Structure formats: structure tokens, C-alpha cells
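Table 4 source record.
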Amino acid sequence: MFVVIVWGLNFVAIKYAFQEWDVKAIATLRYLLMLPLMFWMAAVLKQTVKLGKGEHFKHYLAGFTSSGLYMVFFLEGMDRVGAAQGAVCLATAPLWVSLFAVATRIERFRWTLVFGGLLSYAGVATVILAGTGERHWTPLGLALVLISAVIWAWSIIMMRPLLVDRPALGVFTATFPGAAIIMVPYGVIPMLQTDFTAITWIGWSALAYLVVLAGAGAFASYYIGIKAVGPHQASMTQYFVPIVAALGAWGLRGEPMNLIQGLGVVGVLLGVWWAKQGAIPPNPDPEVAT
């Protein structure tokens, strides 16, 4: 419940943050603040982050993809689309996880994957096309968020073998430094050029939300949830994130959400659920991972 609410409202917090922060500056600042916080949380929860000989490259490559490349595409896309549209587009990531799992022979091919995918993307198209137009999305922003969903899905496939005999939160934290390869050069100059005195309490609050709650807090809670209920049930949380994002965008920012768009959100969720039927969970057995 905590993860659903926090990650749902994360899309709204991002829109408030972009009103005062340069997208590149806040992306890098968020990363630099999350880095020590993640290691601190891993230490408190006694999650091993030490890597053995020859393990650094594959862990840092996973971090480069999941916490670096994904984040660049996601934030650049969210700078150009509304909160609800962004959440709905990102909700298609499980479909790509299944497609990649089939391609890498982790899962078997299923027609439910095809039909569920078609239904889900029809729902995405409905939410986008039934909206109020350019004010809430641009074609480039839509493409960037959809690409970020693909990157995130591939990063999950990359993380799977790393979780076989390691604690999940410890593995994620150990991969996090790999994102510095892209996050630091991406936004360090805009970050240093930021006039921090011009940032209001709203901008600082949005940054704190992205770092503490939607960042370290939600990730830690998500992986604790994996330990408590298993990866398959924990992954169900992402199906409800677009609903919270849409309601948050409507209630807090006044972004319109009509009946047709609501049906589109339902289509996305049903499509993802249908596509996942009969699938092997993309994460390893929780008893092994923890």
C-alpha cells in the first residue's frame, strides 16, 4: 500500500519539481543524495552490498541501466507529458518484461501475452488521444516514457541472475554506483549552475519526496515486500500505480481525467494482468533471494 501510494504520487511530485528545477539538475542531485542514503539503509537492514572478485562489471552495468539510463529517459519524458499519461505509459513495463523473458527463455510463449499487450497499448492510446492535447503531452515525451518502460523492463531481466543468492535490497544498492557513469555527466553542470536560493519550499519538498519517499523509502519497502509476500504478489503493486497517479494529478494539479480516459486506464491494467497470466515470475524465489 505504501509503495502504491508513494510511487503513484511520485508522478505528481515530479511535475511540481519541474516547475522550479531543471530536469538535468534535479536528476543528478537526486542521484547524489540517494547514493549515500541507499547504502545507509542497506547497512541498517543488514543487507550485504559487498561484491566479490569479477562481479563489479555486471552489477554496475545493471545499475547503469536501471538507475541511470532508465531515469534519464523517464525524467526527460515526464518533462513533456502529464502525470497521468506518464504513469499509464510506464505501466506497460511488465509487458516488456514478459516479452524479454520469452526471448531469453525465462518464460514460455503465451498468446495471452500477445492479446494482453494489444489491449494494454490500446488503453495507452485511449488515455493519450482522449486527453486535452499538447498541454498534457507531446509525441517526444510519450516516446521517451515508453522507451523508459522498455529500459526498465530489460533492467529487471538483467537483475534476475544477480538476485539468485543475494538479498534483494543489498543487490540493488550494490548496483547503484554504476548509474554515476551517466547521471553525473548528464546533469552535473546544470546542477552547479542552479540558483538554489531561488528554489521555494515547494521545490525543496518535491526534491525531498523524490529522494526519501519515492526513492530510498519506496525501494526499500518494495524489496521488504518481496521478502514478506514473494516477488509475484509484490509486483502486483505496479498495476495500481497509474490509478493513484491519475487521481493525484486530478486532485492536486487539476489535470483533467474524463470517462474515456478512465476506461483507457482500465484497459491498460486488464491488458497487463491478462498478459501476465501463466507467466513465471521474473524474480527468483524469495526464500533464495533473501
